[in-house]
């Protein structure tokens, strides 16, 4: 049998040469030489590695998935020519492949290429799948290995051997497509429900994050306002303290320069001024009659009633003493021998 196989492959142009190193190159060579030998009337073959073909078919969302069909070719099988020209070229078979399958072909005529396939299947689908393909006898080739992904499991669903008629092949492909479609509808619905749940969760998470952000923004605005108010109070208090310090320094300066109050027994040259304060209290002080008005106003500064903040109103005639010439004497202003003046806030 080995001698017959060697003789057969030597007398025709092989589809894939012996010892193909690159699986992508091998798949492209397979597709091109298959078309050259059997003509263009056949389902298109995926060009790439087996792993890439598996991803193209099975590693997509459920609505985009297809079944992976691995076509195993062997030039020494008497079934090959009929299978390739008549079965794969049948219109309904091609239509079924186009609608439901990703077709990947590999030539296992040479043992080296069979071994390479075994390694790829073992890597992509596991040792059980690799062992099941290894044991296919040559006289049952070609073969179509149908692989589908159901939920999280990717497994061989069926193997269609070369000794079938077109009706049996078509029935097997349609049965596989119907089983896959039934599971696919369930997974599409589950994925949609899962996507909807995830969307609701995303919206809830977004709303929660926005709420947290709004709360943080409010807290930050509150802290900023509190800092601004604190800074304003601190500035006002500082300004007030500075103002008070300046006023106190000025008051002490005025107090130091204020002439002493004359004694009561001094005689006619004395006038007694009574001051009615804004809250109704009274204070009084004696001044010499020839004292300038400025001294009277300085006395009020010492008592905490500066002219910048208070008017000093004489009773008759009614006038604001702070608006008069401060160099005039109390006698000139007819504030002798006694007078009551009223302090009013400006």
Order of helices and strands: HHHEHHEHHEEHEEHEEE
Strand order of the largest sheet: 6-5-9-7-8
What radius of gyration results from the CA coordinates? 55 Å
CATH classification, class level of the largest domain: Alpha Beta
* CATH fold title of the largest domain: Glutaredoxin
Mean pLDDT: 91
Number of helices: 9
Tally the structural domains.
Answer: 2
Q: CATH superfamily membership of the largest domain, which one?
A: Glutaredoxin
Distance between the termini: 127 Å
Quick description:
This protein has nine helices and nine strands.
What does this structure look like?
- One of its GO terms (molecular function) is ubiquitin binding.
- One of its GO terms (biological process) is ERAD pathway.
- It comes from Acanthoscelides obtectus (Bean weevil).
- Residues 213-269 are annotated as: Disordered.
- The protein has 346 residues and is an alpha+beta fold.
- The protein contains 9 helices and 9 strands.
- It has helices spanning 2-11, 23-38, 50-58, 80-87, 91-100, 111-125, 127-134, 166-257, 293-302; strands at residues 67-73, 101-107, 143-150, 153-161, 270-276, 282-288, 310-314, 319-320, 338-345.
- The strands form 2 sheets. It has a 5-stranded mixed sheet, with no helix packed on it.
- β7 and β8 form a beta hairpin.
């Amino acid at each position: 049998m080995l001698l017959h196989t060697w003789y057969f492959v030597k007398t025709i142009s092989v589809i894939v040469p012996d010892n193909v190193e690159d699986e992508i190159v091998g798949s492209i060579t397979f597709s091109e030489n298959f078309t050259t030998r059997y003509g263009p009337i056949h389902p298109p073959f995926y060009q790439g590695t087996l792993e890439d073909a598996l991803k193209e078919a099975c590693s997509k969302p459920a609505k985009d998935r297809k079944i992976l069909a691995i076509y195993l070719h062997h030039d020494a099988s008497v079934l090959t020519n009929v299978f390739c020209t008549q079965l794969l070229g049948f219109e309904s078979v091609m239509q079924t492949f186009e609608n439901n399958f990703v077709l990947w072909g590999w030539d296992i005529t040479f043992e080296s290429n069979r071994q390479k396939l075994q390694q790829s299947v073992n890597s992509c689908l596991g040792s059980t799948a690799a062992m099941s393909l290894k044991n296919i006898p040559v006289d049952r080739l070609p073969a179509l290995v149908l692989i589908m992904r159901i939920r999280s499991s990717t497994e061989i669903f069926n193997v269609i051997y070369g000794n079938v008629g077109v009706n049996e092949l078509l029935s097997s492909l349609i049965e596989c497509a119907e089983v896959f479609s039934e599971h696919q509808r369930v997974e599409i619905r589950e994925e949609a429900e899962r996507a909807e749940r995830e969307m609701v969760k995303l919206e809830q998470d977004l709303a929660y994050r926005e709420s947290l952000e709004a709360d943080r923004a409010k807290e930050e605005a509150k802290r900023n306002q509190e800092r601004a108010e604190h800074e304003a109070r601190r500035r006002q208090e500082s300004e007030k303290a500075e103002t008070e310090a300046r006023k106190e320094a000025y008051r002490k300066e005025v107090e130091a320069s204020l002439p002493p109050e004359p004694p009561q027994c001094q005689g006619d040259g004395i006038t007694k001024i009574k001051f009615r304060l804004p809250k109704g209290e009274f204070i009084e002080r004696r001044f010499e009659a020839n004292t300038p008005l400025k001294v009277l106003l300085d006395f009020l500064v010492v008592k905490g009633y500066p002219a910048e903040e208070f008017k000093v109103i004489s009773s008759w005639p009614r006038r604001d003493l702070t608006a008069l010439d401060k160099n005039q004497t109390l006698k000139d202003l007819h504030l002798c021998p006694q007078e009551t003046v009223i302090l009013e806030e400006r």
